[in-house]
Design goal:
The protein is α+β, with helices and mostly antiparallel strands. The chain has 4 domains: 15-102, Rossmann fold; 107-115 and 198-338, 2-Layer Sandwich (D-amino Acid Aminotransferase, Chain A, domain 1), CATH 3.30.470.20; 131-195, ATP-grasp fold, A domain (Dna Ligase, domain 1, 2-Layer Sandwich); 340-432, Phosphoribosylglycinamide synthetase, C-terminal domain (Glycinamide Ribonucleotide Synthetase, Chain A, domain 4, Alpha-Beta Complex). 29% of the residues lie in helices and 27% in strands. Bound molecules: glycine (GLY).
Length: 437
């Protein structure tokens, strides 16, 4: 064991739980789960500055070390945040040791790690997606994209942390993106060239799946570009709000009927009982039709923390985890506050997303919060009596309220107090919904 035994919480239960990951999403999962009265022991590997004292210094992707350490500490349930360990088979490995895992198997996680596999699933299930071509060699792809750069996006196969999608703004840029995509290609997996959807609104739609039952979470909108006005390179997401008014209750039903249920059924047809969070990145076109841009095998980050603050307080997240495992999930397992909206703003490091500068002292993380204001960590570490930056996305301030204006005011109040050299932060998160009151 590489760390001292983290402190136990003085709860009455007997459950021993580990969270895997180190982002905002995992900080939220840690906070939610640690409130369960069933918990006797909880830790997070590797965690971040926000979970200091509960961190176990093992990389999320070191499956063997994670498995051995979890076994040694008597962990009974592992909740996995990010896609990489899932794609590497952490559920499969932990299960061999009798440890339950919230998250899909490696075969199921291919819905995210194998972009062409996902397209084939969507095609078989009749799910709407943009016209997509798969290329196995660069010269054929080069010929195809000639004179088309403005109408396409180029997708690297495999997991790229939100940075594997290229939206070229010139023919040269398209050729360059193609070169990069083929260089980073995963063995026999093809590079995809997909029709670019314009004049549409993006939305994130997450569901909980227990192999059979499919329960929607409130929708969200994510902001992917680093700069105000959606300028600059793509990131993992630097802000968002929930629910998005773009997804009306009627559209939500349609997304469930036309996208989520068919996908879970298609997986079942192929012998896969998907368990965990399934996430669809959607474009809603000008006629209100949903089109799937991608499926992810886990919750969104920062969408999940932004959504989670609207959860009813009495929810015991460990009951949700158990219902997913047992195939007994019902809508009552995850209840959300009626009429509450939330909005989050990310503070990121200078140089993010390309070359984030780290090791900078952060002030303002110890601020006093209230029931409407939340602060999640990602690229932070606590060392030598100070917090410092350790990654691209650093802190996420979230506010909730009755209106988006109120929620944004609270989110700004939190994130503006977080200060470090070179901090980047968007000022326009939620502009499109603020006028709705
Ligand atoms: N924020 C986008 C994602 O989690 O994939």
């Amino acid at each position: 064991m590489s760390e001292q035994e983290p402190p136990s919480l003085s709860h009455i239960g007997d459950r021993r739980v580990r969270i895997i990951g180190s982002g905002f999403r995992e900080h939220a999962l840690f906070l939610m789960t640690s409130q369960s009265p069933q918990i006797r022991y909880i830790d997070i590997a590797p965690g971040n500055g926000g979970t200091y004292g509960f961190n176990v210094n093992i990389a999320a992707t070191d499956i063997e070390a994670q498995a051995k350490d979890a076994k040694a500490r008597g962990i009974d349930t592992v909740i996995v945040g990010p896609e990489e360990p899932l794609a590497l088979g952490i559920r499969d490995r932990m299960n061999t040791l009798g440890i339950d895992v919230f998250g899909p198997t490696a075969a199921q996680a291919r819905i995210e790690s194998g972009k062409w596999f996902a397209i084939q699933l969507m095609q078989a299930a009749g799910i709407p997606y943009p016209e997509t071509r798969a290329f196995y060699d660069e010269s054929t792809a080069r010929r195809y994209i000639k004179n088309r750069f403005a109408d396409i996006v180029i997708k690297e196969n495999g997991l790229r942390g939100g940075k594997g999608v290229h939206v070229p703004d010139s023919q040269e840029g398209a050729y360059k993106a193609l070169e990069v995509a083929f260089k980073k290609g995963l063995g026999k997996e093809p590079v995809l060239v997909q029709q670019r959807i314009t004049d549409a609104i993006e939305a994130s739609f997450m569901v909980l799946v227990d192999g059979e039952h499919v329960i929607p979470l409130p929708s969200a909108q994510d902001y992917k570009r680093i700069g105000d006005g959606d300028r600059g390179p793509n990131t993992g997401g630097v802000g968002g709000f929930s629910p998005t008014p773009t997804i009306t209750p009627k559209l939500s039903k349609r997304i469930m009927q036309e996208i989520m249920f068919p996908m879970v059924q298609e997986l079942r047809n192929r012998g896969m009982q998907y368990k965990g969070v399934l996430y669809a990145g959607l474009m809603i076109d000008k006629n209100g039709n949903p089109i799937v841009i991608e499926f992810n095998c886990r919750a969104g980050d920062p969408e999940f923390p932004i959504v989670s603050v609207n959860m009813q307080e009495e929810i015991d997240f460990l009951n949700v985890v158990d219902a997913v495992r047992n195939g007994t999930l019902t809508p009552s397992h995850m209840r959300f506050l009626e009429g509450s909206v939330s909005l989050g703003i990310v503070a990121s490091s200078e140089g993010y997303p390309d070359t984030p500068k780290t090791g900078r002292e952060i002030r303002g993380l110890g601020q006093v919060l209230n029931e409407h204001s939340f602060l999640f960590h990602s690229g932070t570490r606590y060392t030598a009596n100070r917090f410092e930056t350790s990654g691209g996305r650093v802190a996420l301030g979230v506010g909730r309220g009755i209106t988006f204006r109120e929620a944004r005011g609270r989110a700004e109040n939190v994130i503006n107090q977080v200060v470090f050299d070179g901090k980047q932060q968007r000022g326009d998160i939620g502009n499109s919904v603020i006028d709705l009151g």
